[in-house]
Model the fold of this input.
Amino acid sequence: MKLSGFNSLGFVLIVFVMLSACSTFAMTEFNVLNFGANLNGRNDSTNSFLKAWNAACGTADSTFIYVPKGRCLVGPSALKGQCKSPQIIIRIDGTIVAPLDYGVLGKSDNWFCFEGVSGVSIIGRGTFDAKGPSLWACKAPNSFWGHVNTLSFTNSNNIRINGLTFLNSQMFHIVINGCQNVHLQGVKIFAAGNSPNTDGIHVQLSRSMEILSTFIKTGDDCISIGPDTENLWIEQVTCGPGHGISIGSLAKDLKEEGVQNVTVKNTIFSNTQNGLRIKSWARPSSGYVQGVRFIGSVMTNVQNPIVIDQNYCPRNENCPGQVSGIKIKDINVNLTYLNKTAQSFCSNVVGKVFDLVRPNSCL
Done:
């Protein structure tokens, strides 16, 4: 066959490229508005979100859930796998708001809970507004009553969280629990400096996670790292106010596993209680912390730049008063203070020092 005005080889190549592009980017889209969601911030859109998720999860193709600009009132939402879709992208450009009555969320442990999913990405410039201040005002300091986290992933793989803003969580803002291959980047988290138990990001029982280019202002740990966490990379995180980046508290459970291969690089701490902290209860345990690197952190107005506390007991209530069984080793410390000599302090510590440790070790 001859086509006038076309080079046949060129024509074939163009068609091939177009077909390849279509096969790469073809996705089935689900707009929450088509499932009855409302953007006025007053009408409950919970069922609409769940219907959009179920439709995407049950589709064999890659899928795309879209939340447009506006305000969507959504209550507790459990979003579960196993999904037929190999990839679900949720793009949020609007603001998802919690009910004004904090007791509505209080019926669940999490506001948005993803469980047993794989290949889920939550992206966009949207916001989760959990309306936490009304609950904080009723909570005693350090009380865990009202245990409602904003966004959690449990027993999930290949997760991406990018570009979103989280406001005023009732408790933790983001929880990663029992997951593998998690990438979190460009996230912003805001809560008052005196807000109770509002950790920015909590990680536990998880493998291979990155937290990059993230800004966290909160009333508790900016990032908290729980037991059985391995291969965690944290870089270019800005923290403050808050309690810093903490490993622990460990030794709550005698059977818990350790924490290993954690790198914290090029972070900025401003007006925080601590910078980098390892904390464990003073009781027997099979747990451990090893392979931790603190590199290139800049701290301004930080009360305790680096803390290793194996006698952790908040508020000094019901302290176990034993010897910590958590074994800590292979920790890199190189701290300077305004081009002056930094100081270290030890109490009831037994250990050994190898290679470069600055300030001079007090062991």
